[in-house]
C-alpha cells in the first residue's frame, strides 16, 4: 500500500516544505569574516547577491559601496583575525553594521586621535550615506567582547536615486 504524501495527511506540511521567496522584510544576515585584504571583495559580492535575492537590487550600488568601505575600515582597525557584518532591511531602509575588535582607548587624547583616524577612513561611505539621505556613525560596541561598532542606514528611496 502506497504511503500518502505529507500534504495529503497534513495540509500545512506542504507549506512548511516550500519556503517563501525572499522579500525585503526577510533580509537579515550576519557573517563572521576574516580580517583580510580580500574580505571587502567578498562583502561586495555578498551584499549585491543578497539584495538582488530579496528584490532590493535598485539600492545595490550605494549599499555595496558602503558595506565594502565599512568592511575595509574594520579590517584595517581590528586587533582580531575576524570582523562581523550584519545586514538588515527594516522600515524601508538597509542597515549595515560592522563590528571589529579595536577597543576604545581610555586616554582622551588617544581616543580623539583614533576617532579622527577612523572618521577620515570613513569619508567616502559618509558621503554616500548623506547622498542617500541616511545616517551613519561609529562607537563602542555593546557586546561583551567590546570593540567598535560602525553602522550605516540607507533609506531605500534615497538609495534608488543615488547617482541619478
Count every beta strand, where a strand is a DSSP E run of 2 or more residues. 5
Strand order of the largest sheet: 1-2-3-5-4
Q: What's the assembly state of these chains? A: single chain
Helix percentage range: 40-55%
Number of continuous helical runs: 7
Low-confidence stretches: none
Task: Tell me the β content.
Answer: 15-25%
Distance between the termini: 64 Å
Average pLDDT level: 91
H/E topology pattern: HHEHHEEHHEEH
| Biggest sheet features | 5 strands, antiparallel
Which geometry do the CA atoms define?
globular
From the alpha carbons, calculate the radius of gyration and give it in angstroms.
Answer: 20 Å
Strand-pairing-aware structural class:
alpha+beta
Can you describe what's shown?
By secondary structure, the protein is of the alpha+beta class. Helices cover 44% and strands 23% of the residues. Strands 1-2-3-5-4 form a five-stranded antiparallel β-sheet. Strand 4 and strand 5 form a beta hairpin. Helix 3 packs antiparallel against helix 4. 30% of the residues are buried.
Sequence-ordered SSE layout with sheet pairings:
Layout: H1 6-9, H2 11-17, E1 28-34, H3 39-53, H4 60-77, E2 82-90, E3 93-100, H5 108-121, H6 123-131, E4 135-140, E5 148-155, H7 156-160
Antiparallel strand pairs: 1-2, 2-3, 3-5, 4-5
